[in-house]
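Blinded run. Sample ID left blank on purpose so nobody reads anything into the name before looking at the predicted structure. Input follows.
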Amino acid sequence: MPKDYPRSRRIAEQIQRELSEIIRLELKDPRVGMITLTDVEVTPDIEHAKVFFTRLGAFGEASDNETVTRALQHAAGFLRSELAHRMRLRVVPDLRFEYDESVERGVRLSNLIDAAVASDQPKKSTRKKRAP
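Blinded prediction complete.
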């Protein structure tokens, strides 16, 4: 496990905020649609950044996730140049986008837990009790 570098973490958080805004307001690619950036990991030398995203309300469509990933990777140069204008860094990292499956996995596990709890609940009696 790599050592946590506070400067890298701060830069990653700033990149996440700025990229979210750039994608929402300035990226005009219809393939991207509604996405949320869930995390950014920056190498200690600030040369590379791995940007994790998830799509809103679109679980289980792997081909669409690949399409969005390709669209974001295609726009990486534009996004990097916009980051350069907004952030004061000597080096703006190369951007690599990856679909974040953790949100989808969490929803699936939550549904399984809810189903297991519901099946363990005692069945309510359908018979009416007689008055004494």
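Unblinding after everyone has recorded impressions. The mean pLDDT is 86.
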